[in-house]
Amino acid sequence: MASVRPLISVFSGSGEPVSDASIPLPSVLVAPLRCDLVQSVHRDMAKNRRQAYAVNITAGKTPSASSWGTGRAVARIPRVGGGGTSRSGQGAFGNMCRGGRMFAPTKTWRKWHRKINSTQKRYAVASALAATAVPSLVMARGHAIAEVPEIPLVVEDSVVAGATKTSAAVEALKAVGAYADVEKAAASKQIRAGKGKARNRRFKMRRGPLVVYSGANDQERAFRNLPGVECCEVTRLNLLQLAPGGHMGRFVVWTASAAAALETMYGAGGKSMPAATMTNADLGRIINSDEVQSVVRPALRHKPKPLRKKNAISNISALEKLDPHAAALRRSAAAAQAASAKKRSERKAAKRALSKKYKEQKKSFYAKASAQGDVCEDRTFGL
């Protein structure tokens, strides 16, 4: 569970906290952290944007082909009929044939999308929101927040609403120490590996800050050109933005009105807040406490399992139990083998040294013999 603070500071455009402008911590920011639920819901939600794809239903099935049957010393695959071209007689239809259909052609009626329980979706969003208020989780996700004065980071509404140009948005993020995360996202841009390069997904980049505001205004035009930065209205919070990739801890920059609206959405006046199953997550301490140990029954003693009989022929440890001298025999055999190998290597080394010794003599003899020529060149054969 996230750590609880009673109040959150509100920062101005100069990066200084505004006096008498603190707001109470929204109750949703102390919701239970359920990473398993966030990952499960994110996996199913991400599938709901997919578009159906399939190969042409007639692809690879257009030739007029039929099998030649058996007895002709060729495979029974259907073959293109006719003549006068190299195509006739070639195999068709099969997935092993050139120009044939694929195995198990893809269909458009595949189960592309997933239904998700609404309660689970709300619980996952609440957990993702609570993770944005834990600095360790935000840093663990890879965000650069070393210069951020406070997590969760809340700024005045005028800081975001007053940014009508990208330069003003950059200055606002620099003032509160959030621009380092934008630079980190910009430096991470690289070409995607795989075929996505040719499918309008050439580059990939890390996520930067998420700016959450309240009400309709034009600040998205100022922030949308910053690499990695996303904007979202507080009533349209999305788990895909709060926990990209199913990983909790997105760095969020809240406006004061958006942070206050969280209590209306998730507090007493809105949906009921999820409660933790355990107040104290230290299960070992609970079990070993005197209160629990004084009322539980003694631990059951299980019957010892019968020893498994092991084959002494294939199991060395079992053989040593039956014959203590077996280990000594094995060591002596290994020593004899090592001595034999050493002696064999010494003999090889001696032979190589002797061959090397007479190598020059062999070369000189061959050179002299080659210079003298063949003794039978005059066809007298030495007679």
UniProtKB/TrEMBL annotation:
Residues 340-361 are annotated as: Disordered. GO terms for cellular component: ribonucleoprotein complex; ribosome. Keywords: Ribonucleoprotein, Ribosomal protein. InterPro entries: Ribos_uL4_C_dom, Ribosomal_uL4, Ribosomal_uL4_dom_sf, Ribosomal_uL4_euk/arc_CS, Ribosomal_uL4_euk/arch. It comes from the Eukaryota. Residues 341-356 have a biased composition (Basic residues). GO terms for biological process: translation. Pfam families: Ribos_L4_asso_C, Ribosomal_L4. Residues 271-343 form the Large ribosomal subunit protein uL4 C-terminal domain. One of its GO terms (molecular function) is structural constituent of ribosome. Belongs to the universal ribosomal protein uL4 family. This is Large ribosomal subunit protein uL4. It comes from Corethron hystrix. The lineage of its organism: Eukaryota, Sar, Stramenopiles, Ochrophyta, Bacillariophyta.
